[in-house]
């Protein structure tokens, strides 16, 4: 097994932890939205949103990202084990970057930079690393 395949497998196992963190933070956001004052409003791009509704969107996005990251990590582990199957994972890497960036933007819009923003920054870094590693693994499989 090449060093790229080993590193991809390690990163994917770390991605499972990131996915679980997304699920937990998404669940906490949904569970805590009742504590927000319905009269509180957040302005995004000149449009005012109810803070509770925004929390619902962010919570659902966190749970959706966590589920996607679990599937993504499984595909990466599978691709690391069988390099011929790395193609779909490479495409999913771009989707993972989009999920991470949107989550980061939603989180900053909801409450500025907070602890849960770090998991989206980690997700972006992992997704870019996975994209690069999967490209190298694809080259090795094509030889």
Automatic annotation (TrEMBL):
The chain crosses the membrane at residues 12-33, 53-77, 89-110, 116-134. This is Uncharacterized protein. It comes from the Bacteria. Keywords: Membrane, Transmembrane, Transmembrane helix. It comes from Thermophilibacter provencensis.
């Amino acid at each position: 097994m090449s060093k790229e395949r080993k590193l991809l497998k390690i990163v994917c196992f770390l991605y499972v932890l990131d996915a679980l963190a997304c699920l937990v933070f998404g669940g906490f956001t949904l569970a805590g939205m009742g504590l927000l004052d319905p009269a509180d409003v957040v302005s995004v791009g000149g449009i005012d949103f109810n803070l509770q509704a925004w929390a619902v969107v962010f919570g659902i996005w966190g749970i959706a990202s966590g589920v996607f990251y679990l599937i993504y990590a499984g595909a990466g582990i599978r691709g690391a084990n069988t390099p011929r199957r790395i193609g779909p994972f490479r495409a999913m890497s771009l989707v993972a970057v989009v999920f991470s960036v949107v989550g980061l933007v939603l989180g900053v819009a909801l409450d500025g930079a907070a602890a849960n923003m770090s998991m989206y920054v980690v997700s972006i870094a992992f997704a870019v690393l996975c994209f690069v590693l999967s490209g190298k693994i694809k080259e090795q499989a094509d030889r």
